[in-house]
Design brief:
Strand content of chain A: 15-25%
Number of helices of chain A: 5
Number of strands of chain A: 7
Low-confidence stretches of chain B: none
Radius of gyration of chain B: 19 Å
Largest interface: A-B, 28 and 30 residues
Number of helices of chain B: 11
Distance between the termini of chain A: 31 Å
Number of strands of chain B: 0
Shape of chain A: globular
Radius of gyration of chain A: 15 Å
CATH topology of chain A: Rossmann fold
Mean pLDDT of chain A: 87
Oligomer: heterodimer
CATH architecture of chain A: 3-Layer(aba) Sandwich
CATH class of chain A: Alpha Beta
Largest sheet of chain B: none
Strand order of the largest sheet of chain A: 2-1-3-5-7
Number of domains of chain A: 1
Shape of chain B: globular
Distance between the termini of chain B: 43 Å
Strand content of chain B: under 5%
Order of helices and strands of chain B: HHHHHHHHHHH
Largest sheet of chain A: 5 strands, parallel
């Protein structure tokens, strides 16, 4: 099925980002980059989404929120960590409240480093996530991957 | 008999195809109005096929049954209008009642979920139905006043252009069309675009195949409602087609140029339009009938 490649719907969550990466994510939707050309829709609703974009590091306040959103996205799904904070925690990694990169909490499929990550890099990350979606879909069909039956939280 | 079967097959092929194409054109034209290139015209079909391949999260046992009922009644609703020749004296009133029934199933699907967003979306959808219903009924009465019949086939084959005797009702119907299409300024229950304050309102709890059912049913609804627009100009089909497309373009233009109305403003504006355009038109027809004896 090639349809996952043609209509990736996105949900964006701001972990503890400085808003730099968030602005770049939103810049992708503006007329200059216009990701809707590729069928990308910013849904704002995890139950409609295929790709989970997270900016900023995980802290002890939002760890449950991230797990909750992740568990509400129907399979097949992909997670993209955007910006160096989401990838590894960056300069905040030693802070008392920071747990680290997103992969400390949920499995991450694509890493997009940068401070802030440029829109071109974000679009490239989404394109790579499409391959992940396709693979997960075929794994689901062949029974290698189980549908998530219960919430992580 | 074979001709009838061909009609049925044509309906089941072309109604969703046209509905999806209209939805795709909507997205392209909206994007161009916003200075963007926009998705391919067939994007809604890609979306629906993708959604059918996703995992289905249903919040309870009844959730998807209600949506299947919504789809069934939306299909039946279009069939009542487009396949009217198959039914013996098919009533335009039934068309409007079936539309309401289909929407009621949608509202029940949204109510059956626990999510507060879905719940408020369902309440607003009920409110929008309340706001739109009088004019839809007045449209049926207007057709009756103009043709002396509720029969869809007789309305279709009326000897004069119905728009000429029902101009007020036509404008009122186009007004109500934006409510029924759930487009801005009346996208209170759910929105076609990204975020709103209710997340996705009515459709918040639909995921994967259930959301695909909702989309397909909405295509049928759109095609049915545009069919009623066509009925106003049925005596000259070419003009009818042009006006139908223009009407759809007008709803897209309004969608892109208006901010969302509040509930009370929606109510006031729509019912005042109904009273003046719909009620006024009916009264004029009545007096003309009295004068002409």
């Amino acid at each position: 099925m090639a349809f996952f490649k043609k209509s990736p719907w996105i949900i964006h969550y701001d972990g503890s980002s400085c808003n730099g990466c968030d602005i770049e994510v939103l810049a992708c939707l503006t007329p200059l980059y216009d990701v809707e050309r590729f069928g990308v829709v910013n849904t704002g609703n995890p139950k409609h989404a295929d790709i989970f974009l997270i900016t900023g590091a995980v802290n002890s306040q939002n760890v449950d929120v991230i797990k909750n959103i992740y568990s509400q996205i129907p399979e097949p799904k992909a997670v993209i960590a955007i910006g160096i904070c989401a990838v590894s925690g960056n300069i905040f990694r030693d802070c008392y409240n920071i747990i680290g990169g997103i992969d400390k909490v949920i499995p991450v499929d694509v890493y997009v480093p940068g401070c802030a990550a440029r829109p071109e890099a974000i679009i490239d990350g989404v394109v790579q996530a499409l391959g992940v979606l396709e693979k997960k879909y075929s794994d689901l069909k062949s029974g290698k991957l189980n549908e998530n039956k219960q919430a992580l939280v | 008999m074979t001709l009838n079967i061909i009609f049925v097959i044509l309906y089941f092929i072309f109604a969703p195809l046209l509905g999806g194409l209209f939805a795709g054109l909507d997205r392209v034209v909206s994007a161009r109005m916003q200075g963007r290139v926009g998705p391919p015209v067939f994007q809604p079909f890609y979306d629906v096929f993708k959604l059918l391949g996703k995992q289905n999260f249903t919040v309870n046992r009844f959730h998807s049954y209600y949506l299947v009922c919504y789809l069934l009644f939306a299909v039946l609703n279009g069939a009542q209008l487009y396949l009217a020749c198959l039914f013996n004296a098919d009533d335009i009133l039934f068309v409007i009642f079936t539309l309401t029934l289909a929407d009621i199933f949608l509202v029940m699907a949204a109510y059956s979920a626990g999510s507060p967003y879905s719940f408020i979306g369902a309440e607003r959808e009920l409110f929008q139905m309340l706001v739109a219903e009088p004019l839809l009924l007045i449209t049926a009465f207007g057709f009756y006043m103009a043709t002396k019949s509720f029969d869809v086939v007789k309305i279709y084959s009326a000897d004069h252009m119905l728009f000429l005797s029902l101009p007020g009702i036509f404008i009122g119907f186009v007004f109500v069309l934006t409510i029924k299409f759930r487009k801005s300024p009346f996208d209170l229950a759910t929105s076609h675009h990204a975020h709103q304050e209710l997340v996705k309102g009515l459709t918040t709890e639909f995921s994967g195949p259930t959301l695909a059912l909702f989309e397909i049913a909405h295509w049928f609804e759109v095609v049915m409602l545009l069919g009623i627009v066509f009925l106003f100009f049925a005596s000259s089909p070419l003009l009818g087609l042009i006006i139908t497309v223009l009407t759809y373009f007008a709803t897209i233009l309004i969608d892109n140029t208006y901010a969302r109305f509040k509930l009370h403003l929606t109510f006031e504006v729509a019912w005042i339009a109904t009273l003046i355009l719909g009620g006024g038109n009916l009264m004029v027809l009545y007096f003309l009938k009295l004068v002409n004896g």
